[in-house]
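Recall from the previous lesson that a structure prediction takes nothing but the amino acid sequence as input. Here we apply that procedure to TetR/AcrR family transcriptional regulator from Agromyces albus. The sequence below is the only information supplied.
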Amino acid sequence: MKGTGRRQSRASTNEITARTTTGQTGSGRSVMSINIPYRMVRSSMEARERWIEAGIEALRADGIDGVRIDRIARHLGLTKGSFHHHFSGAGQYRLALLERFESDATEALRRVDADLVEATALEALTRLPEVLDSLFDVPLERAVRAWAFADADALAALERVDAARLAAIEARWVAILGPGERARIAALVPHLLVIGASVAAPPISATELRAVFDLLASIAPAVE
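The prediction returns the following C-alpha cells.
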C-alpha cells in the first residue's frame, strides 16, 4: 500500500487534472475527469515562447514586414498548425509581440530605476549613458517606432512605454524643482535626447553620447 501511495504522489506531480462535476444534485450524472500530462503542458508553453522570441528577433532584424509566419515556422522547425494552436491569427500574434516588448521595456526601466534609487536627478542624468544598453534594445526600439506610424496597437504600446520612462525621469526633477510644468520640461530634455539617440542613423557613439549628457548636467542647475 505504501508503494502505491508513492507512485500516486509521483504521478500527481506529472499531471494536471481538470475535473468537471455534474452529479452533485443527486441526479446520478457521471463525473468526467481529464488528465493532461504536465510535460505536454510545459512543451506547449515552451513552443509558444519560442514563437514569441522568434517573432521579436524577426521584428528586431527586419521590422514588422519581417514578421512572416511561414518564415518563422521554417526557422523554428514548427508547423503552421503549431502557430494556430497558440494564436488565433497574425493579429493576435502581433499583439503578443507588443506585449513582450512592453513588458521587457517596463522591467528594464524598473531595474535601472532601482539601480539609481540613491542618485539625485543630476547624478542620474550623467549616468544615463551607462545604462542605455540595458534600458533600450536599439534595433527593436527602432522597429517598433517605425511600426507605430502605421499601427494603432503598436502606437499605444509605445506611448505607454514612453510615458513610464518620462514619469521616472520627471519624478527625479520634481525632487529638485517641485511638481509642475518646469519639472516636466526638464525631464523632456534627456527623454527626447535618448529617443533621438536610439534611432539616429548613423548611430551616435557612446563617447559622443556621454559628452552630450555631461554638457546637460553642467547646464542643468540653471533651471533650479
